[in-house]
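Thread amino acids onto this structure.
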């Protein structure tokens, strides 16, 4: 059983505190290696087919279904994509090389997250794959207590392979900083991982294909709080068509995790007067973490 499997199983089946502490320490160590500039962690020897990585089990029975495999299944050694997954070409690695992803890849900093990434592979499960430059998996601390979820990659995210970069990302970074966190301490992902054309809203079949992987990421990370960013992400995750102006600021739940809906940073850039409301929402999250609310306006 891998460390990541032990971590997730331990939580599900009540393993000893020592096992959980060891697993958490291992995750922190890998994260520290990445932060310290270590780009590669030696891959373990290939496992037998029966022990191939799988999406981690749900948080509790029935709350996080396994991510479905594509009809044909991912290839044994899928090619990486994007600047966050720069790896030697498959031919250079030779036949029988281990899977192309590693915990040093962006957003894959634990065995559990790596399993999700490997299950996702070079995904073609929905039509969005045809227009993407990069599959934007996620970014951040694999053991984050705070997670942000947006709608899907925009043009800059598609180009750089990282969620929430560009102007909206800069504002999100300020929001995170104002809450007393650093971007590296949280985890950031989207409902869909490929850019919709013309930045349109993702369609129901695209959400149905991709959301299981977001759920699997949440099951791997097990954050205390999710902040859902913007109308689309909030309404999709909550299956609630109520306007974001009425949903924001009130605690909800998604996959057994407390969820705070608030405005999307891109919306706040267009409507700076709404920053004060977003700040109220974020202060509610800060209170959840025992961080003292600060009397200031906007992020
Ligand atoms: Fe696969 Fe999700 Fe991209 Fe669709 S949006 S191709 S399901 S990764």
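Threaded sequence (299 positions):
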């Amino acid at each position: 059983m891998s460390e990541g499997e032990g971590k997730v199983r331990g939580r599900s089946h009540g393993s000893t505190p020592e096992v959980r502490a060891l697993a958490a320490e291992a995750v922190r160590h890998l994260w520290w290696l990445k932060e310290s500039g270590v780009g590669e962690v030696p891959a373990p020897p290939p496992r037998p087919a029966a022990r191939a990585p799988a999406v981690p089990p749900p948080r509790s029975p029935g709350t996080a279904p396994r991510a479905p495999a594509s009809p044909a299944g991912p290839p044994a050694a899928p090619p990486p994509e994007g600047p966050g997954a720069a790896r030697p070409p498959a031919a250079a690695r030779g036949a029988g090389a281990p899977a192309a992803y590693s915990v040093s890849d962006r957003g894959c900093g634990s065995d559990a997250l790596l399993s999700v990434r490997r299950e996702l592979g070079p995904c073609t499960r929905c039509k969005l794959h045809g227009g993407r430059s990069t599959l934007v998996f996620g970014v951040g601390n694999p053991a984050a207590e705070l997670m942000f979820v947006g709608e899907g990659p925009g043009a800059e995210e598609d180009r750089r392979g990282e969620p929430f970069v560009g102007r909206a990302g800069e504002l999100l970074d300020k929001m995170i900083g104002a809450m007393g966190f650093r971007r590296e301490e949280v985890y950031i992902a989207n409902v869909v991982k490929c850019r919709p054309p013309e930045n349109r809203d993702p369609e129901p079949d695209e959400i149905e294909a991709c959301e299981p992987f977001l759920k699997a990421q949440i099951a791997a990370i097990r954050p205390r709080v999710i902040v859902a960013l913007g109308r689309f992400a909030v309404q999709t995750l909550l299956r609630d068509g109520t306007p974001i102006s009425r949903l924001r600021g009130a605690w909800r739940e998604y996959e057994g995790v407390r969820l705070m809906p608030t405005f999307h940073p891109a919306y706040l850039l267009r409507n700076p007067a709404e920053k004060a409301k977003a700040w109220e929402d974020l202060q509610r999250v800060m209170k959840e973490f025992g961080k003292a609310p600060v009397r200031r306006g906007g992020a």
